[in-house]
């Protein structure tokens, strides 16, 4: 009978590494949403709209290039970036507090699991 997944140390280490990477991804998404909220706030304060199609296309094109350079499927990275851009706009519109200026050096609000 083969050993259970939990009894294979190499598998446990690999899963732990994946867990750490997943956590880092979540923190990066939180930081990205925070930065996007600041950009949207600045843009709207200066008469711009929440949505900036030209900038969004630049972001997606840059992400596709980075994906190709990293050997990651560009469609995957584009899907992630489109979802992140959309979430940033939805978060800004649905959360009035996002429209307030942020204090320099304020920490990114991340809830611990």
What's the alpha carbon Rg, rounded to whole Å? Answer: 19 Å
β-strand percent reads under 5%
Q: Structural class per helix/strand content? A: mainly alpha
- Summarize the helix and strand pattern as letters: HHH
Number of domains: 1
**Most strands sheet:** none
Mean pLDDT level = 86
Topology, number of strands: 0
CATH superfamily: Chorismate mutase
Could you please describe the fold and organization of this structure?
By secondary structure, the chain is an all-alpha fold. It has a single domain, classed as Chorismate mutase (Chorismate Mutase Domain, subunit A, Up-down Bundle), CATH 1.20.59. Helices cover 67% and strands 0% of the residues. The protein has three helices and no strands. The chain has helices spanning 9-45, 53-70, 74-94. Helix 1 packs across helix 3 (74-94). The protein is elongated and about 65 Å long. Residues 106-113 have low confidence and may be disordered.
Lay out the secondary structure.
Layout lengths: L8 H37 L7 H18 L3 H21 L19
Features:
3 helices; Chorismate Mutase Domain, subunit A; 113 residues; mainly alpha
Describe the structure in brief:
The protein is mostly helical.
